[in-house]
Amino acid sequence: MKQYKIGIAGVRGKSTLAGFQATENAAVTAVCDLDEGALNAFGEAAGVPAGGRFRVFEDMLECDIDAVVIATPMQCHVPQALSAMLAGKHVLCEVPAAVTMDELWWLIETKEKTGRTFMMAENYCYTPAVQLVKALRRAGAFGTPFYAEGEYLHELGDHYLLRPDGKPTWRAFWQLGRRGNFYPTHSLGPVMEWFEGDRVTELSCFGTGGGFVRPELRQDELSVTMCRMESGALAKITMACVAPRPHNMHGYLLQGTRGCYEAPRGLGDDHKIWLEDHPAPGDKAGDRNWRSLWDFRERLPARWQNPPEAAKNAGHQGGDYFLVQDFMDAMESGEEPMCDVYRAAEWTAVGLLSALSATNGGRAMEVPHFRRNMPNAERLVRL
Known about the structure:
The protein is an alpha/beta fold. Helices cover about 30% and strands about 20% of the residues. The protein is built from 13 helices and 15 strands. The chain has a 9-stranded mixed beta sheet. Strands 3-2-1-4-5-6 form a 6-stranded parallel beta sheet, with helices on both faces. Strand 1, helix 1 (about 15-20) and strand 2 form a beta-alpha-beta unit. The chain is globular. It starts with a strand and ends in a 17-residue tail after the last strand. The mean pLDDT is about 95.
């Protein structure tokens, strides 16, 4: 079995560290960050000696590594991913994949040219609840799904926007300095896991305009992006990162012709499900009462049934561990991972196009059909 040497760019990549350390054929041998203090602290935690610590990304690419985790600010993702693939490295990239539509074309072209593995690290797809709903959907328990919701409600306070010296961070510009849904993939990714084989073809986004809570920010207090699938199904993606409120970053709903699912909303609520063919205990004919999603725990895929300790201790309910395993498997087999460059482009494009839609009064925007050997005539934004 080939041993893979991994370099991690950005200390935010520590979320994947435990997964790599628990993988027999992986070793984190290089780390990179502009902040020297953060770099050295991360290097110590990762067991990487001084010779494997870099402040310049391109310097790290020159060392003996097979793959790079890109966990830097979002505006750095594509430039660094391109450099890494052109240097012969595989790439596991944090979300979102890009900050402009043109970057998505460059990313796809470079991935196809180099043949390197590219995977977007959308860890919310790997949580047990999402995987259990996916298994039930595959088994036909929901009938035909036709509507879903995903919510990312996460207030970003000043500690995200300002450095200790009072200067703005990158988030002040690339996140709260723009309109629409700048961070769609945590909501959309799980939804698209349930609409397996489908794709988003059109969207329309409405936002509050950013004038209610913090008028100095361009970001909407809340935005709602309605996505239409190729099948005709709908998905509503809601984001609120300015509105003052408790967090709820795992708010989901799936509605099918024979069942539905809703994620918890707080105050002791649980994952709940109603399935026509599996009524709640005590239900009479025609009753429609919720029951716990975990009543169907035995339907979880095998690796979620008895996860290793490394998965139990990983972040995002084990998601950070399982996505690393899928990345390693993709490098080893040469097959495309679940969140390959085309899915990464589609899910990221929903956010990028939502900004155009919101600033144009909710205008419907066509989402390109991202796929292998996509003709240049389709690599555009239609207004």
